């Protein structure tokens, strides 16, 4: 097959993109656990929402399960980056499992906020997606106090105990703009609603959205690398479409790119979600280069330097040379 290659065909790659500090830590936690204790290491739910990451870890000996009851008594289980409710910790303890908690520290921060506000008898409006693991984990910290607000549509229907003792919190991977709008509408309905002490939408989510806005303004097509169940990756597609891209698609890897998407396109934007290994982006760039998009420019909008230490359970055993 031959492809038309006008000199103007170019690719703008967003930076920052790909792995955030919480994902890096969680994936490393499984890798280190496999090195330290040997296979199998059980992981409750996908460690991060990326099919390639899960497949790669499976090949190394990780076994992914839905619930802790599937883990043999006494075995090691890693909790995913999205966090778990206290009930899951209790179940694991009852079964005598050895746990490694790979919950991102920025998700743990939201759990702590939920517990604190609940202990002060606030009702908590948790903005997030129903059924998402992070929302289930956070809601499990204070089930009697948390009311889920899944998008703008829920603003008018959510019920609260006391509208004057009300705070909002959110999932870490939402659209910043959409959440701002949801909060504005919630405040119209509940004027005494208070804000969380700090942003719950994390630095990585925010930065990837800022970066994709920049490339979307100049690209007709924005390709977002990420899996279909990755909330933050899906938000990047929406943000790209809202900020100038004519089309945007979420792809697990280069094999999902359809040639017709490139028809008439001169500038393609490329970015990736926080759970996406960089080699998948490299594959997309190679695929585009074969189709005449060899002029690649990286557009950096924010510099990132956040790093998190490995879960303490692992650090202890690494220090002891287990
Ligand atoms: O929460 P989301 O579906 O975006 O999850 P991913 O794709 O695994 O990305 C990492 C985010 C996370 C672990 C929770 O903030
Ligand atoms: Fe943590 Fe944010 Fe990454 Fe989620 S997206 S794992 S909250 S750094």
From TrEMBL:
List its EC numbers. Answer: 1.17.7.4
Report residues binding (2E)-4-hydroxy-3-methylbut-2-enyl diphosphate.
49, 82, 132, 172, 230-232, 275
Pfam families on file: LYTB
Q: Output the Gene Ontology terms for molecular function.
A: 4 iron, 4 sulfur cluster binding; 4-hydroxy-3-methylbut-2-enyl diphosphate reductase activity; metal ion binding
Residues reported to bind dimethylallyl diphosphate: 49, 82, 132, 230-232, 275
Share an example GO biological-process annotation for this protein.
dimethylallyl diphosphate biosynthetic process
Cofactor(s) needed, names only, are: [4Fe-4S] cluster
Keyword list (alphabetical) reads: 4Fe-4S, Iron, Iron-sulfur, Isoprene biosynthesis, Metal-binding, Oxidoreductase
Catalytic residues in the record: 134
Binding-site residues for isopentenyl diphosphate, renumbered to this chain: 49, 82, 132, 230-232, 275
Pathway membership: Isoprenoid biosynthesis; isopentenyl diphosphate biosynthesis via DXP pathway; isopentenyl diphosphate from 1-deoxy-D-xylulose 5-phosphate: step 6/6; Isoprenoid biosynthesis; dimethylallyl diphosphate biosynthesis; dimethylallyl diphosphate from (2E)-4-hydroxy-3-methylbutenyl diphosphate: step 1/1
Q: What detail does the entry give on cofactor binding?
A: Binds 1 [4Fe-4S] cluster per subunit.
Q: Which reaction does it catalyse?
A: dimethylallyl diphosphate + 2 oxidized [2Fe-2S]-[ferredoxin] + H2O = (2E)-4-hydroxy-3-methylbut-2-enyl diphosphate + 2 reduced [2Fe-2S]-[ferredoxin] + 2 H(+); isopentenyl diphosphate + 2 oxidized [2Fe-2S]-[ferredoxin] + H2O = (2E)-4-hydroxy-3-methylbut-2-enyl diphosphate + 2 reduced [2Fe-2S]-[ferredoxin] + 2 H(+)
Q: Where does [4Fe-4S] cluster bind?
A: 20, 104, 202
Q: Which Gene3D superfamilies does the annotation name?
A: 3.40.50.11270, 4-hydroxy-3-methylbut-2-enyl diphosphate reductase, catalytic domain
**Which PANTHER family does UniProt cross-reference here?**
4-HYDROXY-3-METHYLBUT-2-ENYL DIPHOSPHATE REDUCTASE
Function, as annotated: Catalyzes the conversion of 1-hydroxy-2-methyl-2-(E)-butenyl 4-diphosphate (HMBPP) into a mixture of isopentenyl diphosphate (IPP) and dimethylallyl diphosphate (DMAPP). Acts in the terminal step of the DOXP/MEP pathway for isoprenoid precursor biosynthesis.
Sequence similarity:
Belongs to the IspH family.
Record's protein name:
4-hydroxy-3-methylbut-2-enyl diphosphate reductase
* Organism the protein comes from: Streptosporangium sandarakinum
Tell me the organism's taxonomic lineage.
Bacteria, Bacillati, Actinomycetota, Actinomycetes, Streptosporangiales
């Amino acid at each position: 097959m031959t492809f038309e290659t006008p000199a103007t065909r170019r690719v703008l790659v967003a930076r920052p993109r790909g792995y955030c500090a919480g994902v890096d830590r969680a994936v490393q936690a499984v890798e280190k656990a496999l090195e330290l204790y040997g296979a199998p290491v059980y992981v409750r739910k996908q460690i991060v929402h990326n099919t390639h990451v899960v497949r790669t870890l499976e090949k190394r000996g990780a076994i992914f399960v839905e619930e802790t009851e599937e883990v043999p008594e006494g075995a090691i289980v890693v909790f995913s980056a999205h966090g778990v409710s206290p009930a899951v910790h209790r179940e694991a303890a009852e079964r005598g499992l050895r746990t490694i908690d790979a919950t991102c520290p920025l998700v743990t921060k939201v759990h702590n906020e939920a517990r604190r506000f609940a202990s002060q008898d606030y009702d908590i409006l948790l903005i997030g997606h129903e059924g998402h693991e992070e929302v289930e984990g956070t809601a499990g910290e204070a089930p009697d106090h948390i009311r889920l607000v899944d998008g703008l549509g829920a603003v008018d229907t959510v019920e609260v105990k006391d509208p004057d003792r009300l705070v909002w919190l959110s999932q870490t991977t939402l659209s910043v703009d959409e959440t701002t709008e949801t909060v504005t509408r919630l405040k119209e309905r509940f004027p005494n609603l208070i804000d969380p002490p700090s942003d719950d939408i994390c630095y990585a989510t925010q930065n990837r959205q800022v970066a994709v806005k920049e490339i979307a303004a100049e690209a007709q097509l924005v390709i977002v690398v990420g899996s279909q169940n990755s909330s933050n990756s899906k938000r990047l597609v929406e943000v790209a479409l809202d900020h100038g891209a004519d089309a945007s698609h979420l792809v697990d890897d280069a094999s999902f790119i359809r040639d017709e998407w490139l028809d008439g396109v001169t500038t393609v934007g490329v970015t990736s979600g926080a759970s996406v290994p960089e080699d998948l982006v490299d594959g997309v760039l190679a695929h585009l280069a074969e189709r005449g998009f060899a002029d690649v420019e990286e557009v950096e909008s924010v510099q990132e330097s956040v790093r998190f230490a490995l879960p303490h359970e692992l650090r202890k055993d690494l220090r002891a040379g287990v």
